[in-house]
């Protein structure tokens, strides 16, 4: 069972007691992988992924039967600065599309056999423009974390979290700039498709926000520069760690949320892998900072959890080979 938390200090305390991968299961997975009917390393990254997955599920013969995809939606006050090519009303419209089954993520979740949940967080009440004040009060931030924390089904065996929120690439860029430094333009991309002038303005807005809210703490950065849906993703990723549920990270915004957790403790993202490298320019640099190699690179930039949901198929393939293949002894094949 997940512990409850009613303060940010309690959230930090819970994460300080987060479990680690099962070393015995990992050793068993590695031993089994070495006995399967294939040359050593012939399945490449699939072998590493299967061993990682089994170590978190506590078995040398894992299975995937209950994936969960959660999409969180929120609106951002910083859109008043003109950083998006689309109005905030699109967030509400897309939530309706998710709930009616008409979005890309619905199709990919269904294909993966995943339960899909949608959580809209106060869409009629955007966060504060972070160039003027912190995006969320501590109470608002705590509520968003709690929403994500409670949204994870303890019975799921792999988790994908996605987002919808006009303006959230600006938020993610600001988070990355605050965490990793460099120039604001290094972390700022076109998002929904802003033109050249819009891109310059967006980078300026990112720089202003980071200059106003200088902090080295991951939760402070997330509260001041994030959005409710970004905080909820972080809450869900943290909850999955407590439950030993492996997580497939989606694109730039999801990884920005995860990066705030990574700042809290070494190894905080050991239960996660990167589902894909998105076309948002700074995502590659963010993945490098997180030490994550993407499973896919298909030029996706939709968000919603779409790239990670597609990567469930890769993870299923890795696990199916690991668990379903015969060993040399079982197959009566010489191992050389």
Please, could you describe this protein's structure?
The chain is an alpha/beta fold and 336 residues long. It has a single domain (8-21, 65-324), classed as Rossmann fold (3-Layer(aba) Sandwich). Helices cover 50% and strands 8% of the residues. It is built from 15 helices and 5 strands. Strands 2-1-3-4-5 form a 5-stranded parallel beta sheet, sandwiched between helices. Strand 4, helix 12 and strand 5 form a beta-alpha-beta unit. The longest helix is centred in the C-terminal third of the chain and has 19 residues, at 306-324. The protein is globular and about 70 Å long. The mean pLDDT is 97. The active site is at 304 (proton acceptor). It catalyses: 5,6-dimethylbenzimidazole + nicotinate beta-D-ribonucleotide = alpha-ribazole 5'-phosphate + nicotinate + H(+). Keywords: Cobalamin biosynthesis, Glycosyltransferase, Transferase.
């Amino acid at each position: 069972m997940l512990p409850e938390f009613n303060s940010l200090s309690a959230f930090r305390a819970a994460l300080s007691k987060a479990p680690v991968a099962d070393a015995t299961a990992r050793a068993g997975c590695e031993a089994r992988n070495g006995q399967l009917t294939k040359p050593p390393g012939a399945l490449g990254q699939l072998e590493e992924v299967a061993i990682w997955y089994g170590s978190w599920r506590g078995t040398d013969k894992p299975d995937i039967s209950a994936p969960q995809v959660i999409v969180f939606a929120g609106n951002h006050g910083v859109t008043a600065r003109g950083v998006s090519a689309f109005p905030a009303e699109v967030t509400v419209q897309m939530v309706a599309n998710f709930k009616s089954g008409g979005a890309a993520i619905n199709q990919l979740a269904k294909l993966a056999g995943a339960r899909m949940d949608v959580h809209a967080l106060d869409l009629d009440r955007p966060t504060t423009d972070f160039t003027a004040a912190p995006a969320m009060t501590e109470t608002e931030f705590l509520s968003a974390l709690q929403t994500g924390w409670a949204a994870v089904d303890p019975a799921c065996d792999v988790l994908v979290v996605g987002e919808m929120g006009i303006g959230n690439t600006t938020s993610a860029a600001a988070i990355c700039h605050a965490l990793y430094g460099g120039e604001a333009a290094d972390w700022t991309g076109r998002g929904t498709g802003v033109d050249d002038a819009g891109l310059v303005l967006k980078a300026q807005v990112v720089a202003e926000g980071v200059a106003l809210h200088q902090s080295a703490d991951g939760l402070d950065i997330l509260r001041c520069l994030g959005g409710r849906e970004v905080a909820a993703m972080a809450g869900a990723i943290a909850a999955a760690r407590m439950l030993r549920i492996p997580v497939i990270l989606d694109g730039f915004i999801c990884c920005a949320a995860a990066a705030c957790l990574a700042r809290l403790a070494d190894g905080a993202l050991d239960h996660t892998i990167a589902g894909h490298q998105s076309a948002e320019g700074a995502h590659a640099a963010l993945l490098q900072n997180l030490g994550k190699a993407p499973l896919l690179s298909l030029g996706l930039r939709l968000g919603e959890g779409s790239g990670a949901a597609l990567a469930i198929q890769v993870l299923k393939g890795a696990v199916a080979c690991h668990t379903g293949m015969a060993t040399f002894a079982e197959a009566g094949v010489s191992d050389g």
